[in-house]
Design brief:
Blueprint: E1 6-8, E2 11-17, H1 19-37, E3 43-48, H2 52-61, E4 67-72, E5 76-77, E6 80-81, E7 99-107, H3 111-122, E8 127-135, E9 148-152, E10 158-159, E11 175-178, E12 186-189, H4 196-207, E13 210-213, H5 214-223, H6 227-236, H7 244-256, E14 264-267, H8 273-285, E15 292-297, H9 300-314, H10 317-320, H11 322-336, H12 339-344, E16 349-353, H13 358-369
Parallel strand pairs: 3-4, 3-7, 7-8, 8-9, 12-14, 12-15, 13-14, 15-16
Antiparallel strand pairs: 1-2, 2-11, 5-6, 10-11
Bound molecules: adenosine monophosphate (AMP).
Adenosine monophosphate (AMP) binds near residues 268 and 269.
Length: about 375
């Protein structure tokens, strides 16, 4: 499944159902139809526009004699059901006494299938079945039986595989759902050794967020001897920053791996204004933003002692040498600390006393996050 977010008109959508799952669901519906209707010479009536893709697949898979027709009866406008159902156009076959299969892309409140069922009955058809690719059981309020269902989904707005949002998205071969806009994206900030990694581990569990530590991603690449790792190592060993272009591309790729995240904890990123600008632009393309920078404030000498202590067990070369540690802290003040102003100007900066027990500091961070 393609993992990318997409934008249609003003809204963002995230991948929801893969093409593979859709094909399996169509096969299942199709097995049912072949089994039940082989001698019935059914008339398939596909409801336009949304059902065209589903209908085509179903009709291709039907192994016996059948007829095909298309009708139009729109009930959607925008992302809300309008409750007003328009007239039926396109049904010119005689249907009295026949077996009819209505092919729907999605059954939501059931307004459309109810109207269709009434119209078929008025025209003398009593043997009709509804086959739908998607079905929202929570939204359905009608009596008409839905005989064949491909995939049951929660009450979410979806696009793709024939379904649209204001005209766009019908050509997508997998299904996307509307992305909610309330992602909690946090920049966890502070000098090296402030405890960002430790707190990120706790916060990601507590708030169900995805933690991205650029330092960890670099170390992972170094361990696996990737090209990126080799490049990053030369900078990291000296306590210098890896070039922005490399870091930014890597960060963006990490975000793109988690299209369904409720939010991210960015740890070690951004580290300068260019990275902060890039992050803002990148998140904007996904319809979201940085909600807050939460900064752990710790005195320098405490940091040096903590990092030297951590270096005894962490195996990190940049923790083992006091000169490299001091260089990292210096770079933090020279290049990174200005981001405090950057986020302060947007009313997004929250400084937190980073000295104390782990639980105590988590509580201080939570006090801020809970107000966002
Ligand atoms: P950390 O684990 O966050 O202390 O990062 C360790 C090292 O990885 C840093 O000293 C840099 O060499 C590199 N690094 C991590 N994040 C970034 C970033 N956002 N920009 C540039 N270099 C980074």
């Amino acid at each position: 499944m393609s993992n990318s977010f997409i934008k249609l008109h003003d809204l963002h959508f995230v991948p929801f159902i893969s093409e593979n799952e859709i094909v399996k669901a169509i096969d299942k519906v199709s097995d049912g139809l072949n089994h039940d209707l082989k001698d019935k010479k059914p008339l398939f009536i596909a409801v336009l526009n949304g059902a065209f893709m589903f209908a085509s697949e179903i009709i291709k898979r039907f192994d016996y004699e059948c007829e095909v027709s298309f009708v139009k009866l729109a009930s959607y406008s925008g992302t809300e059901t309008t409750h007003e159902v328009k007239e039926l156009v396109g049904l010119d076959q005689e249907i009295s006494g026949r077996t009819v299969v209505i092919l729907e892309d999605i059954v939501d409140t059931g307004n459309t299938v109810e109207v269709l069922a009434k119209m078929l009955e008025e025209k003398g058809c009593s043997d009709y079945k509804i086959a739908t690719l998607f079905y929202k059981p929570e939204a359905y309020t009608k009596e008409v039986a839905i005989t064949y269902t491909g995939i049951e989904i929660e009450n979410r707005f979806i696009v793709g595989y024939g379904l649209d949002y204001n005209g766009l998205g019908r050509n997508l071969t997998q299904v996307y759902q509307l992305k909610s806009n309330n992602m909690t994206n946090l920049v966890l900030f502070g000098p090296p050794g402030a405890g960002k990694g430790t707190q990120a581990e706790v916060l990601k569990q507590k708030y169900d967020l995805v933690h991205i530590s650029t330092g960890d991603v670099f170390r992972y690449n170094i361990k696996n001897a990737t090209e990126l790792g080799t490049l990053a190592k030369s900078y990291m060993d000296k306590g210098q920053l890896v070039p922005d272009e490399v870091t930014i591309n890597m960060l963006n790729a990490e975000v793109d791996k988690k299209p369904n995240a409720k939010g991210f904890i960015f740890d070690g990123f951004p580290r300068n204004e260019a990275q902060a600008d890039s992050l803002a632009k990148f998140l904007e393309t996904k319809g979201t933003e940085v909600r807050a920078m939460v900064a752990l404030e710790v005195d320098d000498e405490v940091l040096v002692q903590r990092l030297l202590e951590r270096g005894k067990t962490s195996g990190r070369p940049d923790d083992a040498d006091e000169g490299v540690i001091r260089n990292r802290i210096k770079i933090y003040y020279d290049e990174t600390a200005i981001l405090k102003d950057y986020y302060q100007k947007q009313d997004k900066y929250f400084g937190i006393d980073g000295v104390g027990g782990v639980d105590e500091i988590t509580q201080r961070l939570s006090n801020v996050i809970d107000t966002l």
